[in-house]
Amino acid sequence: MKSKLIKILLWTLPLIVGLLSIGVGRFEVDFIVQIKILLSQIIPIEQTWTQMEETVVMNVRLPRIILAMLIGGGLSIAGAAFQGMFSNPLVSPDILGVSAGAGFGASIGILFFGNSFTMQIIALGMGMLAIGFTFLIGGVKRDMPIFMLVLAGVVTSALFQALISLVKFLADPEEKLPSITYWLMGSLGTASYSDLLTAGPLIVIGILILYVLRWRLNILSLSEEEAKSLGVSVTKLKWMVILGATLITASAVSIAGIIGWVGLIIPHIARMIVGSNNQYVLPASISIGAVYLLIIDNLSRSLTAAEIPLSILTAIIGAPFFAILLRKTGGGWG
Amino acid sequence: MRNTYKYLLGSASIMLLLVGCGDSNTEVSKDLKPTAETKMIVDELDREVEIPTELNSIAMGGILPYFSTWFIATNSTEEIVGIHPNSYNAASHSILKDISPSILDAKTNFIENGEVNIEELITLNPQVYFEIASQEKTVEKLEEAGITTVALDTNTTSLNPLDTLNRWLTLTGEITGVTDRPAEIITVGEANQKMIDDTLAEADITEEDKPRVMVLQYHSDGEISVAGSNMHGNRWLNSTGGIDVAADEVDGIKAVNMEQIYNWNPDIIYITNFTETQPEDLYNNVFEGQDWSQVKAVQEKKVYKMPLGIYRWYPPSGDAPLMLKWMAQKNYPELFTYDMNEEIKDYYNRFYSYDLSDEQVEEIFNPSSEAAKY
Amino acid sequence: MILKVKDGNYFYKKAKKGNPQKYLYNDAINFELHPGEILSVLGPNGAGKTTLLKCMMGLLKWEQGSTLLDGKPLTSLSTKEIWTKIGYVPQASRMTFSYTVLELVTMGRAIYIQTFAQPSEKDRMLALEALDSVGIKHLANELCTAVSGGELQLALIARTLVAEPEILVLDEPESHLDMKKQQVILQTIKRLVKEKGLACIINTHYANHAFYLGDKVLMVAKDQPVLTGKVSEIMTEENVFKYFQIEVKRLRHETDGQVFETMVPTYFGSNPDQ
């Protein structure tokens, strides 16, 4: 009974919060009006609102809300999948160096091409390159032992972080440096439908890959030999999980910058609600992560006239929240 | 064990040496008295600096617009032997290179990645080096290296946009001993300000009549950053009868979203030269996901790129008195009916002894997007 | 299903060129196991008991020799063919994530579930049945981290059973357990083997458990020949002294119509007069 209610909530909450979020923002739009504007996209309604109101609802808020939910859900499922695969609840989606790599790509993108589509492509490419680099160090040909992957990820992250610093050091302090610094803290301030079109499909593919593997992740979380003895081809499975998580993280970084904390804490919250079985943890993470980042982004765009970088909010709100949960449960998720 | 002892002894003696050096330095500076060849001035870090009376080689670092101040204060760039690469770029793309080509002889190699390379600077051997006051460490380091350094402050608490320029002009006058030119320019600036204030008062311009204005500092597909309070833009607007829409909510430069801009819905938008965006880009709505066509300033075609004369007009350059007049006219075209073309030609003729062609004036008022890159 | 290990041997480090290769076992491992038989692997710590199991199942590669299932070398079989035949019960260790007992046991069905699929209701029913067969069905919804070590070990056995193996391999299943729980584990294993006609290989530290489980014993120790044979033949005072360096007495005791065969270390002995 209780679990059924939770299930319904997890499915409907993102939709409800998403709908309510359309009413949040610096520009005032009447609630009835925004419902009308939304409906008018499907059924003909006489236009009683201003063009500006429609632009705000349809072109400013809607793509941003969808992106926030996609990225929040994506980073959370990627975090949950990695925590399962590495059998370590302290792992986040950037453990293998994707974020640092994509961040570096974005920095050089901003340096040479400004904040543009080209920058996004470079960010995405560099994220993938970073993963390749991690494999190169971690040893692709062998079985990819987990600890080697983690260490290789640490090395890769450190290297690309240093490269980011180098780019910042070389950047013009008048214009480029503030842009890069601001961007690295994560923002959806200029999210548009074209962002949705370029990064959205990749994130969705990544989510789908992890989603169908969700039960298999339980087995991956066991010791390597145990998993093998259950007849699972561990290496192949790891590859698929890494591919899925990398697609999500690199795409997310390429359009929204580096957003910390989401991929780390949401899976924990999901486990507190649905237990440890990844078959349920992964879908729950999508739902909770989508709602969480959406709320964070709502705050980011409406609290002050200036956009507040997402990473600041995810950490300021996420860390104490997480600390309270930790104390309450004594880390009871395992 | 013996090694540790050796290290301790070594580091102790180095310490002693350092302390000794420090002491002797202060003593030496106390002993120095201004002579016939030198004089004492107080820079903007409140440091007493002894400088030669006769100056024929100076260099300047992180204080990017200062070369233009120096030029207008002295009508010469001959003395400038070194400038920041960013300043050099700006100069080589501005009208200054035509007015005073010697600026292009200045060296830039003593600045690498924004940091002063002291050894290169010593090789260049300027009599005085000008540095930005926020770089206190650099100033100290240079002083220790025996390079006479004058610190200039870009920060100001004054609401007067000409405050920085006036301070620098006055200080430069003290340094060079030529004070009448700087005083004249300050007077012109003050006169322009008074003219604007009087005209606005005469026209009974109330708060409601004032145009609501936004300054777009950095802009691209992925970033919309506006300048708010404590920025040059805010001061220019206050002095020219504009209301800065961002003043209450934005301190310094902050990223905002389109919705916020709709909320402000400014009557006029000024675009700085720190970004490549042109008014036409907003008119033509070329930015993905940013619908500027809804904004009043865009609908009424009141988006202006800030001019670029001997330097960008956004920070207080040597052309600053002109900036006042230009912006006042853009804010109130019906009140300020003077011909800016004539104004700028007169000013350049008077202070730079240079006759601008119509094409050159055109270029100053319509700086290319390329200008953002230097 | 007949499991046969032929000339199996292993080494951790390849010898440098010119040096003779040193193997883990003094001589090659050879044994054959038939359905319904239990083979106890005995040996001191570090003798390579766990390694032997892993090599035998292909989790490690024999450096020499091979494992044959019904005469076919393991290396010629697919993953699925191997792991539907062999069920491996590792030592119970602390788990990072607290799955429920039922969820843990359901994982045993992995080999029958497509990579992108989720377990069906049938898989869950089979898991419950397996739990029933090891006698802990009532714990199905408890967390693995909340049940006792013995119960977790039983759950791991159940997890192996849901894949319906013909050969059961257990790595010290009763170590770290108290006597009552050892009893449950050993009885369950013996019962399952006889009921389902499984072949079973079990690593153990306890000589007495080998007597209880019966059938065959494989005894290994460093620098000692590998001994394989019937329990009664291998489990002698001399062998135990040679392989474990401990003096024991093998006792046979009859009481209440039952025969007890056991080994007792001599240091346990005391003089009742003192």
TrEMBL record, chain A:
Entry GO CC: plasma membrane
Tagged with keyword Cell membrane: yes
UniProt-recorded Gene Ontology molecular function terms: transmembrane transporter activity
Subcellular location: Cell membrane
Gene3D superfamilies: ABC transporter involved in vitamin B12 uptake, BtuC (1.10.3470.10)
Keywords assigned by UniProt, alphabetized: Cell membrane, Membrane, Transmembrane, Transmembrane helix, Transport
Residue ranges the record marks as coiled coil: none
Listed Pfam families: FecCD
Top-level taxon of the source organism: Bacteria
Topology within the bilayer: Multi-pass membrane protein
Sequence intervals crossing the membrane: 62-82, 94-113, 119-139, 146-171, 191-213, 239-266, 278-296, 308-326
One GO term of the biological process aspect: siderophore-iron import into cell
Family in the record: Belongs to the binding-protein-dependent transport system permease family. FecCD subfamily.
Protein name: Iron complex transport system permease protein
Species of provenance: Psychrobacillus insolitus
Phylogenetic lineage: Bacteria, Bacillati, Bacillota, Bacilli, Bacillales
UniProtKB/TrEMBL annotation, chain B:
Entry's Gene Ontology BP terms: cellular response to iron ion
Lineage: Bacteria, Bacillati, Bacillota, Bacilli, Bacillales
Highest rank taxon of the organism: Bacteria
Gene3D superfamilies listed in its UniProt record: 1.20.58.2180, Nitrogenase molybdenum iron protein domain
Domain Fe/B12 periplasmic-binding: 59-335
Cross-referenced PROSITE patterns: FE_B12_PBP, PROKAR_LIPOPROTEIN
Pfam family of the protein (one): Peripla_BP_2
Matches recorded under InterPro entries: ABC_Transporter_SBP, ABC_transptr_periplasmic_BD
This protein's name: Iron complex transport system substrate-binding protein
Protein family according to the UniProt entry: Belongs to the bacterial solute-binding protein 8 family.
UniProtKB/TrEMBL annotation, chain C:
A GO MF label: ATP hydrolysis activity
ABC transporter domain location: 5-247
Keywords: ATP-binding, Nucleotide-binding, Transport
Keyword Metal-binding: no
PANTHER family per record: IRON COMPOUNDS ABC TRANSPORTER, ATP-BINDING PROTEIN, METAL TRANSPORT SYSTEM ATP-BINDING PROTEIN TM_0124-RELATED
Name this protein carries in UniProt: Iron complex transport system ATP-binding protein
Lineage of source species: Bacteria, Bacillati, Bacillota, Bacilli, Bacillales
